[in-house]
Design the sequence.
């Protein structure tokens, strides 16, 4: 592509700060920005990008104006950095599809929603094909739980099991997520409200998830992505939730309360996927109020020949998510129309030059 890629930023919060700057500095042109926060509406997008960032001339508009503005501008890409479930993004994805605008999002479920929201994903896939554009979800998990894992698998002769573990501090993500992980619950409440799925059969849990009545842990979607990328055929998939605890009292700034020793500090959600090929994936998310010695970490172990373990400790999750999205933009533009998850993309690469120079087909 000879001209600059044009992009809109939908969501100008914590992620938007980096996405705006990374996009501009990789040679793309910001043409619109949206948010719902009254405190930043009307401001130049540069104020979100950081102190001293040169003015962009693009004022942040109310998200309610996205349909009209995007329909008039028709940028190459809309970057969405708002919510965590595919249902919460249906409206903006639909707007982008209607106007033929490629869209890429930080939404965790959007990485592989085929196994958690299949009906909605098929609906969005149809709309995107009609609009001749591509919708997808990308982020830190695309690399650290995805392409890093499948690339490393290429160094194995035989794999019988893949074990993955990701730890994160619920204090970093707000009260809704902390409570969703059971932080600060009593053991009895945790058992009733979170661990109640543990007795369900795989078919019962699958039906509950696909009906939209239960949002699974992030690894539910990730295991689906990994199996698709590795051409594994799933026999069954289950999720179990267990409370995490600490031996001493912990004060949570997010909950503004002290969690007593032995009470749930959060949740360990374990997703087990069995495949026809004999490879089992056992992956877990450990989200909790961190004790003083805890830190964000990711550990992946391949059991087989040879046995291999790789660890990524203290990752810069926000920055890695945003950089992965921006580097994926040329592949997004080149991808076929529809809801196309990144297991169908080439491996991501670092864009040394301006993004438009990597676009091949359009």
Sequence:
């Amino acid at each position: 592509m000879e001209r600059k890629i044009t992009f809109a930023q939908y969501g100008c919060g914590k992620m938007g700060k980096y996405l705006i700057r990374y996009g501009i500095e990789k040679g793309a042109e910001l043409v619109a920005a949206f948010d719902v926060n009254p405190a930043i509406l009307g401001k130049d997008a540069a104020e979100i990008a950081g102190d001293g960032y040169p003015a962009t001339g693009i004022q942040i508009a109310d998200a309610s104006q996205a349909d009209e503005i995007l329909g008039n501008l028709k940028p190459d890409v809309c970057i969405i950095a708002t919510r965590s479930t595919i249902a919460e993004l249906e409206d903006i994805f639909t707007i982008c599809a209607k106007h033929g605008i490629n869209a890429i999002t930080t939404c965790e479920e959007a990485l592989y929603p085929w196994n958690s929201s299949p009906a909605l994903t098929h609906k969005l896939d149809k709309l995107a094909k009609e609009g001749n554009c591509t919708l997808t979800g990308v982020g830190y998990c695309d690399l650290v739980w995805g392409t890093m894992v499948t690339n490393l698998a290429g160094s194995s002769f035989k794999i019988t099991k893949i074990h993955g573990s990701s730890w994160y501090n619920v204090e970093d993500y707000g009260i809704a997520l902390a409570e969703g992980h059971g932080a600060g619950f009593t053991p009895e409440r945790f058992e009733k409200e979170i661990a109640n799925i543990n007795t369900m059969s795989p078919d019962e849990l699958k039906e509950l998830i696909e009906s939209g009545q239960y949002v699974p842990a992030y690894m539910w979607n990730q295991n689906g992505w990994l199996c698709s990328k590795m051409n594994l055929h799933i026999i069954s998939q289950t999720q179990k939730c267990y409370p995490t605890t600490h031996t001493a009292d912990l004060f949570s700034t997010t909950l503004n309360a002290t969690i007593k020793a032995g009470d749930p500090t959060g949740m360990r959600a374990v997703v087990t996927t069995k495949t026809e090929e004999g490879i089992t994936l056992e992956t877990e998310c450990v989200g909790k109020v961190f004790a003083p010695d805890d830190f964000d970490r990711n550990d992946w172990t391949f059991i087989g020949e040879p046995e291999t373990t790789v660890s990524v400790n203290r990752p810069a999750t926000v920055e890695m998510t945003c950089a992965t999205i921006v580097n994926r933009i040329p592949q997004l533009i080149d991808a076929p129309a529809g809801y196309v998850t990144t297991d169908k993309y080439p491996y991501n690469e670092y864009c040394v030059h301006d993004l438009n120079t990597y676009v091949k087909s359009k």
Q: What stands out?
A: The chain has a mean pLDDT of 95. DSSP finds eleven helices and 15 strands in the chain. Residues 44 and 361 are 33 Å apart (CA to CA).
